[in-house]
């Protein structure tokens, strides 16, 4: 495949964003999730079950992967004869700019939220279980898009929240993609995430 600057991506289009479901809801049907744009070029949200996190900081989301590979050696020549992947974690780090109920729900799992009139009270309690959601990360670069489906998403870490005069307040958090059992091409697999894209450079020869 020859080099092409058309294949260099800068994912920051206006329709880019992170979407999550409510905690404890069944995983939405992956097959029912539409493409990012329809035939007329109109943006299509991933589904009614999803709620957008909102504006993210200019750094954008950071997709991480932490792999740990164990090396097994033989006596002869101290040669590596086998490797085994013992950890393979996928994460998504974001800095949310909006102070809304979706962001608050991610930051405070198991919180007790009540609204009376125009006043909302959030009681933050010690988390007792997993706050499992389904997530979709949309990435747009002009007419090229990528929609990342994360079947099981949990809060992994949160950063400090700084309320500094003259600066935006953002809410930093790292979301962990857990493995979910799914049937793909007729076979049961443990799936971390699924990427969909209309990028022509991703089409393999013979497809």
Provide a descriptive summary of the structure in words.
The chain is mainly β. The chain contains 1 helix and 12 strands. The longest helix has 7 residues, at 101-107. The two termini are 15 Å apart. The model has no long low-confidence stretch (mean pLDDT 94).
Order of helices and strands: EEEEHEEEEEEEE
Outline the biggest β-sheet.
8 strands, antiparallel
Structural class: mainly beta
Number of helices: 1
Overall number of strands: 12
The radius of gyration computed from the alpha-carbon positions, rounded to a whole number of angstroms, is 20 Å
Principal-axes geometry comes out as globular
Low-confidence stretches: none
Q: Tell me roughly what share of residues is in helical segments.
A: under 10%
Explain the layout of strands and helices.
Elements: E1 17-20, E2 51-52, E3 62-73, E4 80-96, H1 101-107, E5 112-116, E6 119-123, E7 133-141, E8 144-158, E9 171-178, E10 180-184, E11 187-191, E12 194-197
Antiparallel strand pairs: 1-2, 1-7, 3-4, 4-9, 5-6, 7-8, 8-9, 8-12, 10-11
Features:
12 strands, 207 residues, eight-stranded antiparallel β-sheet, 3% helix, mainly beta, two-stranded antiparallel sheet
Short description, anyone?
Helix content is 3%, strand content 44%.
